[in-house]
Amino acid sequence: MDSVSKVDIAGVGALAGQRVRIGCWMTRRRSSGKIQFLQLRDGTGFIQGVLVKEEVDGETWEKAGQLTQESSLYVTGTVREEPRSPSGYELAVDGIDIIQIATDYPITPKEHGVDFLMDHRHLWLRAPRQRAILRIRAEIISAVQRFFDERGFTLVDPPVLTPSAAEGTTNLFHTKYFDEDAYLTQSGQLYMEAAAMALGKVYSFGPTFRAEKSKTRRHLIEFWMIEPEMAFVDHEENLRVQEEFVSYVVGQVLEHCRPELAVLERDVSKLEQVKAPFPRISYDEAIDMLKEDGMELPWGEDFGAPHETLIAEKFDRPVFITRYPTEIKAFYMKPDPDRPEVVLCADMIAPEGYGEIIGGSQRIDDPELLEARFDEHQLPREAYEWYLDLRKYGTVPHSGFGLGLERTVAWICGLDHVRETIPFPRMLYRLYP
Ligand code: 4AD
């Protein structure tokens, strides 16, 4: 018997005329009585297997006939060019080793409700649309890392179990840490500030937990955040890094993920407009814009999804809303020296109604002001002594931000809901599978 090399479907283009073996699943079978067509998938791509009854042995013909949706097999055959196939190739099958015949695969080509699909998320991931989303998510992650690695940032991992809150105490996940109380991280930021004082420019990428009882299309209980932190960087410089960063990530997806964007039927012309610089409007200007459009909001209140959407509709690329009221923002944000009732912060609002994807700010560097903020916010000093030390021993102006990965994936992929942006979403009322 001649030796046949085991290959990935993605690589068959270079192997026309050769005999190959592929480990795969069968997704669909059609038969005309004299010819069987097998739609085969190995995770790297699709290929159509063709069996002509008169040309294959009876056993192979019969095995092909037994294959049901999601049955697993090794197939052998010769790769040949086929201009009518989407990949340009097909496989003239001459041998089949069945691994398992799958019976009653629950996800069929008919329409299923979202709850059913979420209950079968472990299988739903095999659908072309879900695979396209996961590929784009992976490209975004690698583009994020390239962007920061190429610009002299060091990747640093903050802890997941923490003794205190970073972003307010209302949505903390509590757990026991032996005899102590502990919380799952809400943001690595405070630790990243310590790392920036050691390494200058740092970023983290990790899971984040918020026990938010919000059942919206933008909220997850467990999500992934990218958090850069930079010493000697002020508010304006921070915004410039953010717009360069987001433009780069979108550009990389456009460069590397055209087939996946096509599967999702994403209007790429919208993404092609995403180029720095991004517009900047102040919180005050945003309030005025909303009023003009009949959506009045008293000064000092935070924006909700409808407000963000209305503002975003006025721009063809992400927009920064800057200088929010000090009252509604986190304790560590630096007040504007000319106007202390607002802070040097910005939220980046994605276009097309996808809402806030980045929250960031310049941090308070003055030790006395930071201490006063702890008292105002009634935060337990003991848990934060280490954080106050950062202002005692060589404090410097510094800034940073956090980009929510899933909201960014939802926007770039053009998805209605963040639940499809992560392999196994954790949402209010969903911990399974
Ligand atoms: O605005 P947030 O709360 O900012 C912080 O946590 C800062 N400490 C970040 C920093 O400066 N290092 O969250 C940042 C981003 C949001 O813009 C959003 O994209 C995402 O995290 N996010 C969520 N994504 C999904 N589900 C949730 N429940 C989210 N909460 C925030």
TrEMBL record:
GO molecular function: asparagine-tRNA ligase activity; ATP binding; catalytic activity, acting on a protein; nucleic acid binding; transferase activity
Reactions the enzyme catalyzes: tRNA(Asn) + L-asparagine + ATP = L-asparaginyl-tRNA(Asn) + AMP + diphosphate + H(+)
The keyword Nucleotide-binding belongs to this UniProt entry's keyword annotation: yes
Gene field: asnS
Secretion signal, residue range per the UniProt entry: none
Alphabetized Pfam families for the sequence: tRNA-synt_2, tRNA_anti-codon
InterPro entries (UniProt xref): Aa-tRNA-synt_II (IPR004364), aa-tRNA-synth_II (IPR006195), aa-tRNA-synth_II/BPL/LPL (IPR045864), Asn-tRNA-ligase (IPR004522), Asp/Asn-tRNA-synth_IIb (IPR002312), NA-bd_OB-fold (IPR012340), NA-bd_OB_tRNA (IPR004365)
Organism listed in the record: Cohnella lubricantis
Protein name (database record): Asparagine--tRNA ligase
PANTHER family: ASPARAGINE--TRNA LIGASE, MITOCHONDRIAL-RELATED, ASPARTYL/LYSYL-TRNA SYNTHETASE
EC number: 6.1.1.22
Family: Belongs to the class-II aminoacyl-tRNA synthetase family.
Domain of life: Bacteria
